[in-house]
Amino acid sequence: MQQKNNMTIHFMDGSTVSYDFPKQVDNNAAIATRLSKLLEMQYVIVESDGALQFYPVNNIKSIQVYPLPEVFPDYIIRGACML
What CATH number labels 4-66? Predict the structure, then answer.
């Protein structure tokens, strides 16, 4: 069974949108590269149900992605708990 991932985008106006999607890369080292590129983009772009959705980064409050990748950049704080 293919692992499913989930992403929830939280917008500045309080609304959210969620997506389930398959694993995007087989090479875990590519995760750091993709994450760095995403941080430089003006839009988060999602292909869903045969269409592209463009979400302007300046309207996004936060993004949650599950599950946690096996490998990720060293600048990410690990082991934190929300209070």
Answer: 2.30.30
